[in-house]
Design brief:
By secondary structure, this protein is an all-alpha fold. The chain contains 4 helices and no strands. It is elongated, with a radius of gyration of 25 Å.
């Protein structure tokens, strides 16, 4: 499963470097980097928590307006988040065969070393 936490994974480091080099090419004016996109969700969640804990009705109304703006920001950035997660998923899939090839090469070298050692010891 690919989530926003996946973006810190070393397998997608190349994607992050590519995006950090030209964030406007990926996000336009919606964000200045990868970390800006999920920030709107965090802000909306914090405002929602503040509304539920606020006893003053006028302050709750003010927070409700802020929550509406935060939700509008989330709606504006959601397509970019989905696209970013899809790209991160592809980078993870692309990295998996590279890792498998390295392990396979290591195993081939180990078997070859074992076979050479066995043939050398047995003299055949």
């Amino acid at each position: 499963m690919t989530t926003t936490a996946t973006l810190a994974d070393p397998a997608v480091r190349g994607l992050r470097e590519l995006i950090d080099a030209a964030p406007s090419d990926f996000f336009g004016s919606a964000a200045t980097g990868v970390d800006d996109l999920p920030r709107h969700r965090t802000v909306a969640a914090n405002i929602q928590r503040a509304i539920t804990a606020e006893p003053d009705p006028h302050r709750r109304e003010l927070l409700g307006r802020h929550l509406a703006r935060a939700r509008a920001d989330v709606a504006r950035t959601d397509p970019y988040v989905r696209r970013l997660l899809a790209m991160a998923h592809v980078w993870q899939i692309r990295a998996a065969p590279h890792t498998a090839r390295r392990w396979c090469l290591l195993r081939v070298l180990l078997v070859t070393t074992g076979a050479v050692g066995f043939l050398t010891v047995t003299g055949k």
